Amino acid sequence: MSSYKAPLDDIRFALYDVLDSDALFAKLGFGEATRDIVDAVLEEGARFNETVLAPLNKVGDEVGCKFDPADGSVATPPGFADAYRQYVEGGWPGLVSPAELGGQGLPHAVGVPIKEMIDAANLSWGNFPLLSHGATEALGHYGDAWQKDVFLKRLISGEWTGTMCLTEPHCGTDLGLLKTKAVANGDGTYSISGTKIFITAGEHDMAGNIVHLVLARLPDAPAGSKGISMFIVPKLRVDADGNTGERNGVRCGSIEHKMGIHGSATCVMNFDAAQGWLVGEANKGLVAMFVMMNTARLAVGLQGLGLADRALQNSLRYARERLQMRSLTGAKFPEKPADPIIVHPDVRRMLLTQKALVEGGRLLGYHAASLVDVVGHVQDEGEKAQADALLGFLTPIVKACLTEWGVECTYHALQCFGGHGYIHEHGMEQLARDARITTLYEGTTGIQALDLMGRKIMQQQGAGLRVFLGIIEAFCKEHEADDALAEYVAPLRAKAAEWQELTIAIGRGAMANADEVGAAAYDYLFYSGYVALAYWWARSVAAADASSRPQAFKDAKRETARFYFARLLPRTLQHKAAIESGAVSLMALDAAAFDA
Amino acid sequence: MSSYKAPLDDIRFALYDVLDSDALFAKLGFGEATRDIVDAVLEEGARFNETVLAPLNKVGDEVGCKFDPADGSVATPPGFADAYRQYVEGGWPGLVSPAELGGQGLPHAVGVPIKEMIDAANLSWGNFPLLSHGATEALGHYGDAWQKDVFLKRLISGEWTGTMCLTEPHCGTDLGLLKTKAVANGDGTYSISGTKIFITAGEHDMAGNIVHLVLARLPDAPAGSKGISMFIVPKLRVDADGNTGERNGVRCGSIEHKMGIHGSATCVMNFDAAQGWLVGEANKGLVAMFVMMNTARLAVGLQGLGLADRALQNSLRYARERLQMRSLTGAKFPEKPADPIIVHPDVRRMLLTQKALVEGGRLLGYHAASLVDVVGHVQDEGEKAQADALLGFLTPIVKACLTEWGVECTYHALQCFGGHGYIHEHGMEQLARDARITTLYEGTTGIQALDLMGRKIMQQQGAGLRVFLGIIEAFCKEHEADDALAEYVAPLRAKAAEWQELTIAIGRGAMANADEVGAAAYDYLFYSGYVALAYWWARSVAAADASSRPQAFKDAKRETARFYFARLLPRTLQHKAAIESGAVSLMALDAAAFDA
């Protein structure tokens, strides 16, 4: 079975030493978020995740959720409901929600390490509260006073959980095609009818009610994505005071049999004249949906990070224990029958790749979360606009890179175990199966790439990229005379310049042929991710050196950064070449000729 | 459920048009292997695989093998045993075995397309006959007359199946550590005792007997890998005439619960004073084992290819059917509610990547198989030596690249399905889980890389590489004035020159520091694989143009080659940079400091 220990040391380094969270929180008016409080939250989070959630990860996979067709109920795996009760008692659901709604009012940047721990400890379980968070965001922005009082407060307390009901059998990415209908009842409520699929936590036995946020069409709605509205549809009907009553007309029709996340209920939800309430304006549902979606995308990125870290921890342990062959430079442990496999360069390649992607990726993800705090709380409008542009730019990068790296890290970790990695009992194959969903849901990697290239670069003329390039240049300028950092600063500066040129070249090509946007998108996203990580690794070395941490910690950051620049940053070469080759090699072949 | 159709057209292209198999078979004295006969074999193979094995792929995954602890028996999934009966009746087990031993005496190059089809149709099922093939090779080389008469002939007829019993709980890669013991009984037989794990097809209900080839130590054996001998240990005892009797002292102790290939029995085998016969010389078991192993490595490479092809076929079908969003350059099917996703550049990227790796990889694999024929049958000693060196050089490349590409292709294919790919019923997630074993068994990718770099390059001073570079240069020279091929020939020539320089540079570095071999190995292997594929794609264009095939076929080859050179060959840039960065960034960090 795979084990998990929350990486508190590196989490603290990321928050305190690199992102300078003390100063940021003070500036944004998070008076509660002192170092003492944050430390206590992190430590209690570590305890909860290591001792309550992590031990349930295996049973969640083996037993899974059980659907009862007789009453449409879903039983979660043994221990899941009790863990949720403890989660609610601990006040975790409202950790980053406003105090006036019953939350704890802590910054998002404090919420993400807890999120990372939950995903590492038990991804399947984590999906139950995760969807509440998206619903909370949407209702926080667009709910009216009554909706906030009845639904939002209970989502924040954790008494009820939420869902996002978007996908239908014939439409996932293309929500403009959706068919679910909403008809006004004349009393301010609506009747919702239709079928939604892939509804995470759509039905379960962990909370008193389930608040579905459903996209549907009103009778007079325009066609396509401009005719979509959002509705609250609770599992149990509620009265004006929020008391629950009889079942509403919504029922789970079945749950999916999936490659992984067996402990997470992925439901087909049938709505049959279910009573609902409109959220925000009619036909503006897609805007409200994107509020949920952006939060969810960052959260799914964190899932990739959490799984990658658990993969790293276990493969590192195994590589130190497993004895096999001698080092090519002579026995390192002659008293043992063979050397531990961590002496072999290729095993180190797999471990260092994970370490570089996990620790660098942590900064990528936490930084984005800190931008959520800036956007929500900074006074200066100019700063807010810059942070907003940067957050929009980084969101698809965080989602796609952290999840694809999560898949990659679980791949390397399993490979470190050799044939044993393929066997269920070691837990590595579960991590690999669980990780595989993260590049698919909340928008596939290809959709993230299009969001980045089409919306954030082309439509917004690269506003977010400009902000990020400014941050990189400021860092390079600050350290240009620092010999100890020269090996990182010089190549980072060169890559940043190249990034800008590449972006301009793609934009120029896209004016002549719109397919150039789609053709460049995937490689541009990963090119961007690797340059961003180069920045975070260079900053990590600078921050470690400037800190009072032990020399071994500083050495580890420096050597991992060296590895990153030597062996992972060169992935940009391939992405650049692919981008520069343009759309022609992708579009020339006729669709019918693929198997000519 | 995923479907499968044998790609007969591209198989014929590979054999007849690119590899010029008619001329090769005639030269090697395979009088039976005329085009008519080969065509008939391919067509019957396609029928058998499409109609018998492919429909059992899903039930194999869902039901899996069942172990009965009461008697140590293993029940294979419904239909598996009957399919094996049909396989034996069809004469498939002995397809490439010598006629004098009851085989059909066809070339290996005809056997591999059938192997590819089996692996695509039903990888789990294919593992039962696969291991017989390795045992056949070992006994063909090292068995005595009685062993051939009793065991080998029955393996070739398919009446019995074989296994390779190498791995023990504490040693897989490092066989020098193995502990299984063999003691002479004084009557020419031996008593074998010990535990072997990960024994594919170690127990099942498909054949009359199971012939285990077991590595064990004699009492006076030298320590390490020079003290290993190989023994035949049958499941049922046999008399001098090969009649089976009572159970031998070997029994399945359990079967593994695995990520995939559920229909394949992966057994713990307990040997308790089991009766066995020495194969070949005492303490020379590792040499005999490598005969099995090299065959098995090529075969596992083909598994990657087969799965990749099935992945490609299904994702291509889905991409033509699934309607989602409009093309960025305007609706392509305005009469439909949305365009099929094959219009989108990023979907095409995933499809073309699969197509380029599958069709190029097919040539890589088939070429290696044809070298097995050359080594076994060519008259000229110089030619034989060259083919042998080239085969040894290509074997780790075929094994590692085709399996890693198999994993990659099943990844892209699942991704093309979006969230639906993660659901069991579509069959894509099974392909991904099944593919994951191929980079682990018969030597992990890292071990293939060490074999290539350490043995084939360093120890053999690159003899095989020189032969391959000569073949590439001859091709480039032949076509250097051909304008239609210039876009492939020029970059191929440059890459070949770079390949040679890179190899020399690694060799030079390795003389100073042996860790440079291990540090370069993985990236060198993939660098080599991508240059080799560039050669096969350039040759494919030339061969297609020179053939009488339809224009659409020629166009597809040309455009896929363009895609390959533009978007996949640049992966060499990253591998080259990693190689050139040397061992330092891998070795600097102390093992204890990875989580400092």
UniProtKB/TrEMBL annotation, chains A, B:
UniProt cross-references to Pfam families, sorted A to Z: Acyl-CoA_dh_1, Acyl-CoA_dh_C, Acyl-CoA_dh_M, Acyl-CoA_dh_N
Keywords recorded for this protein, A-Z: FAD, Flavoprotein, Oxidoreductase
Residue ranges of every copy of the Acyl-CoA dehydrogenase/oxidase C-terminal domain listed in the record: 283-452
Swiss-Prot/TrEMBL cofactor(s): FAD
Source domain of life: Bacteria
Residues of the signal peptide: none
Parts of the chain that traverse the membrane: none
Record lineage: Bacteria, Pseudomonadati, Pseudomonadota, Gammaproteobacteria, Lysobacterales
Protein's recorded name: 3-methylmercaptopropionyl-CoA dehydrogenase
Catalytic activity field: 3-(methylsulfanyl)propanoyl-CoA + oxidized [electron-transfer flavoprotein] + H(+) = 3-(methylsulfanyl)acryloyl-CoA + reduced [electron-transfer flavoprotein]
EC numbers for this chain: 1.3.99.41
Boundaries of every Acyl-CoA dehydrogenase/oxidase N-terminal domain copy: 81-159
Acyl-CoA oxidase/dehydrogenase middle domain ranges (all copies): 164-272
Limits of the Acetyl-CoA dehydrogenase-like C-terminal domain: 468-590
Function recorded in the entry: Involved in the assimilation of dimethylsulphoniopropionate (DMSP), an important compound in the fixation of carbon in marine phytoplankton, by mediating the conversion of 3-(methylthio)propanoyl-CoA (MMPA-CoA) to 3-(methylthio)acryloyl-CoA (MTA-CoA).
Family: Belongs to the acyl-CoA dehydrogenase family.
UniProt KW Flavoprotein keyword: yes
GO terms assigned for molecular function: flavin adenine dinucleotide binding; oxidoreductase activity, acting on the CH-CH group of donors
